[in-house]
Write a structure and sequence with these properties.
This protein is an alpha+beta fold. It is built from 8 helices and 19 strands.
C-alpha cells in the first residue's frame, strides 16, 4: 500500500543505502592524536645480498645520492639520527651514524668486517628510541624478504602503529648491476637494469610525510624521475568511491541507466544515485562498474581477495546467495576503480554491493611494481610481495581511520 501511494505521487521507492558505516573508528586512538614529535630519526639500511647490485652498478652515484639525501633530509627536518645495518638477528649500529658506509659493496657481500646477513628487516623496529615520543624510523630496502614472509616485519611495525604511528613508502628505481633473485632465492636475471628501492617510514603522520617528501624532492633534483609516494595515514581519500558508470558485458548485450524491476517493484536511477542500473539481455555474461566515466588506462589484476561482494536484500525473504556471481577483475587508474563481474544467466536479478575497506584499496603503482609472476615480462624490475605488504600495512592503519569503506559500488540488475 505504501509503495503504491509513492507511485501515485510520481515517486519510485528508494533502495537500501549503498555505503554502510562500520564500527566507530574513534574507539581506538588515531595516529594523529597520539604521541609527541620525535627529535631523532632511526635509519636502517638493508645489508642483505639482494641489495648489492645498487652499490656495484656502473652508475653507483645514484645509490650514493640516495644515502646522502637521507642524511640531508634528516638535517633539514631538525632531526638527530642513528644509523644501523639491518638484516641479521639484531640491528648493527654504524659508526658515526654514517649511512654512506653502505656505498661499500662489502656492506652487502659480508666482507671487510661485515658479516653476511639475511632479510630480518623487522630488527629496525626492535631498536628502542629516546623516550616520550612516537618513534620515527626509516628503512632503506628492496623489501625482498625471504620466502615473501612479511609477518615478522608487519608484527614489528604494528607495535609502533599501536603507539600512534602511521606509515609511508617512497619508491624509486635506481641503477643496478648483478643478480636478481625471487623470494625463493632463484636467480631470475643477471645484468644491468633499474631496480626498485623503497624507503619505509613510520612515525607521526606529519613527520613521515614531511621526511619522505623532502627526500623525494632531493632525489628529483638529482635526476631520479621514477618515484612513487604513498602516505598510509588512514585519511587519504576519505570520500568513499561510489559507482559512476555501469554497463553489461558485452556492452551491446544490455542497457544502462533504465529502471529495473525486482520482486514486482520498479526502481529508478533518479532517486538512487549511488547505484548503477543494468538490464542484461540474452548473451550477456556479466557487468562492469566504474567510479568514473569514461574509463581510460589503468592496471588490471584478477580477483585479489580485497573486495567483499554481497547481495543486498530488498525484502525479508531475499536470499543472500550470490548464485554464481563472482568478481572477475579489478582495475585501478589513478584514484579510480573498475570492477568486472561474471553473472550467469541463472543468477537471480537483484542488488549487489562490492566493498573495499579502508587501507585495502591499492594504489595503481602498487599493482604495477608488484611481481605477481616471476616469468612475466618486467618481473626483474618488480618486487615480490609488495602488494601484500602495502595492503596489510594499509589495513592495520585503516582500522583506526574513517568508519566508511574506501569504496562501495552498488548495482541493481535484471535479466530481460
Amino acid at each position: 500500500m505504501f509503495l503504491s501511494s509513492l507511485m501515485l505521487l510520481g515517486c519510485t521507492p528508494k533502495l537500501p543505502d549503498c555505503v554502510i558505516k562500520t564500527a566507530d573508528a574513534t574507539a581506538n586512538p588515531t595516529p594523529a592524536t597520539v604521541g609527541t614529535q620525535a627529535n631523532q630519526l632511526l635509519i636502517g639500511i638493508d645489508g642483505s645480498g639482494s641489495m648489492l647490485g645498487h652499490a656495484q652498478a656502473a652508475d653507483a652515484s645514484r645509490w650514493r645520492n640516495l644515502l646522502q639525501a637521507v642524511n640531508l633530509s634528516a638535517q633539514t627536518q631538525g632531526l638527530s639520527s642513528k644509523a644501523f645495518r639491518i638484516g641479521g638477528g639484531t640491528a648493527q649500529e654504524l659508526s658515526g651514524e654514517r649511512v654512506t658506509l653502505a656505498t661499500d659493496p662489502c656492506f652487502f657481500k659480508g666482507c671487510g668486517g661485515y658479516s653476511a646477513v639475511a632479510s630480518s628487516l623487522q630488527t629496525l623496529w626492535d631498536v628502542q628510541p629516546q623516550g616520550g615520543s612516537t618513534p620515527l624510523r626509516l628503512l632503506v630496502s628492496d623489501l625482498e624478504v625471504n620466502q615473501s614472509d612479511i609477518s615478522s616485519l608487519i608484527g614489528a611495525v604494528r607495535k609502533d602503529l599501536l603507539k600512534g604511528a602511521s606509515a609511508g613508502v617512497l619508491a624509486l628505481k635506481l641503477p643496478f648491476q648483478g643478480q636478481v633473485f625471487d623470494a625463493q632465492g632463484v636467480n631470475i636475471h643477471t645484468g644491468k637494469l633499474n631496480r626498485p628501492l623503497y624507503l619505509l617510514a613510520t612515525g607521526k603522520p606529519d613527520q613521515v610525510s614531511s621526511l619522505l617528501q623532502d627526500i623525494q624532492r632531493n632525489m628529483a633534483q638529482k635526476g631520479v624521475t621514477t618515484q612513487e609516494l604513498s602516505i598510509l595515514d588512514g585519511n587519504t581519500g576519505l570520500q568513499t568511491l561510489t559507482v559512476k558508470s555501469a554497463a553489461a558485458i558485452p556492452n551491446n548485450k544490455g542497457a544502462s541507466g533504465s529502471p529495473v524491476r525486482l520482486q514486482n517493484i520498479t526502481y529508478s536511477p533518479s532517486n538512487n544515485g549511488n547505484y548503477g542500473f543494468v538490464r542484461l539481455n540474452p548473451g550477456a555474461t556479466g557487468l562492469v562498474l566504474a567510479t568514473t566515466t569514461p574509463w581510460s588506462g589503468g592496471t588490471t589484476r584478477p580477483d585479489l581477495g580485497l573486495v567483499r561482494l554481497e547481495r543486498i536484500p530488498t525484502s525479508p525473504n531475499s536470499s543472500n546467495n550470490l548464485g554464481g556471481v563472482r568478481l572477475k577483475s579489478m582495475s585501478v587508474a589513478g584514484s579510480n576503480l573498475r570492477l568486472e563481474f561474471d553473472i550467469p544467466s541463472s543468477a537471480p536479478a537483484g542488488l549487489l554491493r562490492a566493498t573495499i575497506p579502508r587501507g585495502s584499496l591499492p594504489e595503481q603503482w602498487w599493482l604495477e611494481w608488484d611481481r605477481a609472476d616471476p616469468k612475466a615480462a618486467g618481473a626483474r624490475e618488480q618486487t615480490e610481495g609488495l602488494l601484500l605488504l602495502m595492503t596489510t600495512l594499509g589495513q592495520q592503519i585503516g582500522m583506526n581511520a574513517a568508519n566508511t569503506p574506501a569504496a562501495a559500488l552498488c548495482v541493481a540488475y535484471q535479466h530481460t
